[in-house]
Design brief:
With 362 residues, this protein is of the alpha/beta class. The chain is built from 13 helices and 13 strands. The chain has helices spanning 24-33, 79-88, 90-93, 105-118, 125-143, 152-162, 201-218, 231-242, 258-263, 279-286, 316-328, 332-346, 349-361; strands at 2-11, 37-45, 57-60, 73-76, 96-102, 146-149, 167-169, 190-193, 224-227, 248-251, 266-269, 290-293, 311-312. The strands form two sheets. It has a seven-stranded parallel beta sheet, with helices on both faces. Helix 8 (231-242) links the parallel strand 9 (224-227) and strand 10 (248-251). Helix 4 (105-118) runs antiparallel to helix 5 (125-143) and helix 7 (201-218) crosses helix 11. The two termini are 16 Å apart.
């Protein structure tokens, strides 16, 4: 433990609990930091004071509410918070600042624009937002000592895209507890965490129409469990286009997603972007699910190998074949155990503690 450094973590949401993947990056920073620093406070910047304050957590609406002179080091996340506090506060710019950006957001905007062309659903806002986000991230880079990123691929992208050598590897750590309620052989169902947001819903429809419909038509006894915020949008789409012929259950976001993973045998993880860690992939494999995804679904997982601890699909036909194989094959318990082991070896709390301690002490 480091006793002589006072650290303030300023972020946009409560990092203390992250059981459904939404705040996984912030939660990893929180959990690692509380194992390093004896003096570690959290300020949550929110226009609405919806977070309950506690002994080391305050909710603020402006940087003027923060007693900056109390702290030696600042951790800032995500992009908008980091930019706001660095841009408007000269005092913070004079301190030692570490920004936790997860993945290069402006690069992500370009990738999403490209995918919009690919899926014939282009959002011009991606291009319109790009100059401002790039400026913000470059400004953050100028005034931060180091930038924490989720994968080595993101570190390389950040280096080339922003002409910076400040990026360092700081992957998310699985956040949910493994509570085995049944043996793997007793699990049933294909789990899919689907996005019903405006940006991703066209791609979600594509996955259902081109992959899952074929799986369910060819295997009427298969059960599909869709987990999604605002799932009614997708449920209505399926009902209008396919009636109610499939065996599908729906659940909304919950405080702890462990039960979703612990009851499904196969998790579908199609990914529309080629950067960042995919939290649902990590959590699913951590719980011993057999994950079927494209190559990007396994970003940052060293040792992820098709047919050994996961299934990597090259196209929609490959997805269908591998989902069916994973669902009916009898030796999937071996894949399940291998999946747990590869995640435990990749995402270790001690590794992150050592890495962040090394960066701080440089």
């Amino acid at each position: 433990m480091i006793h002589n450094i006072k650290v303030l973590f300023i972020c946009s949401e409560d990092p203390r609990s992250a059981l459904n993947g939404v705040t996984a990056a912030l939660n990893s920073c929180y959990r690692v930091s509380t194992n390093i620093f004896t003096y570690f406070d959290i300020y949550i910047h929110s226009e609405n004071k919806y977070v309950i304050s506690s002994s080391n957590v305050e909710v603020v609406c402006s940087f003027r509410e923060v007693e900056l002179n109390k702290y030696n080091i600042f951790f800032l996340s995500p992009v908008n918070i980091a930019f706001r506090y660095l841009f408007y506060s000269k005092e913070i710019r004079q301190k030692e600042v570490y920004s936790f950006l997860s993945d290069p957001y402006s690069y992500a905007l370009l990738a999403n624009f490209y995918l919009g062309i690919k899926f014939r659903h282009v959002y011009t806002k991606y291009i319109l937002k790009f100059p401002l986000i790039y400026f913000k991230e470059k400004y953050i880079d100028w005034h931060s000592k180091n930038i924490a990123l989720q994968t080595q691929k993101d570190v390389r992208i950040f280096s080339r895209f922003y002409f910076s050598r400040k990026g360092f590897l700081f992957p998310n750590i699985p956040v949910s507890e493994i509570i085995e309620k049944n043996n793997f052989s007793e699990r049933v169902g294909i789990g899919w965490i689907a996005s019903c947001s405006v940006d991703y819903f066209p791609l979600t429809k594509w996955v259902f129409d081109n992959i899952l419909v074929k799986v369910l038509l060819q295997n009427p006894d298969f059960k599909l469990h869709i987990h999604s915020k605002n799932y009614e949008i997708l449920k209505t789409y399926i009902h209008l286009n396919y009636s109610d012929e499939f065996n599908i259950t729906y659940t909304d976001y919950v405080s702890d997603i462990s039960s979703f993973y612990n009851t499904n045998k196969v998790i579908l993880s199609p990914v529309y972007k080629g950067y960042g860690l995919i939290n649902r992939t990590i959590e699913a494999m951590y719980h011993g699910c057999v994950v079927v995804g494209d190559r990007a679904a396994f970003n940052g997982i060293s040792g992820a190998e098709d047919g050994t601890n996961c299934f990597v699909a090259k196209n929609k036909f490959d997805f269908v074949e591998k989902i069916e194989h994973a669902y009916v094959s009898k030796n999937m318990d071996i894949i399940s155990n291998n999946a747990k082991n590869v995640i435990k070896s990749n995402f270790d709390m001690d590794k992150n503690i050592k890495n962040l301690t090394r960066i701080i002490n440089c």
